[in-house]
């Protein structure tokens, strides 16, 4: 379960970095 949360957070971080 922790792995899924970490993966989701990592994906969001990449999206945010791409937007900036």
Give me the Rg, rounded.
Answer: 9 Å
* Amount of beta strand: under 5%
Unreliably modeled segments: none
Biggest sheet, open or closed, and with what strands and sense? none
Helix count, DSSP H or I runs of 4 or more residues: 1
Total number of strands: 0
Order of helices and strands: H
What sort of overall outline do the alpha carbons produce when their principal axes are compared? rod-shaped
Structural class of the secondary structure composition?
Answer: mainly alpha
Distance between the termini: 29 Å
The pLDDT mean sits at: 65
- Percent of residues in helices: over 70%
Short description:
The chain has 20 residues and is mostly helical. Helix content is 90%, strand content 0%.
Written overview of the protein:
This protein is an all-alpha fold and 20 residues long. The protein is 90% helix and 0% strand. It contains one helix and no strands. The protein has one helix at residues 2-19. It is rod-shaped. Residues 1-20 are annotated as: Disordered. Residues 1-12 have a biased composition (Basic and acidic residues).
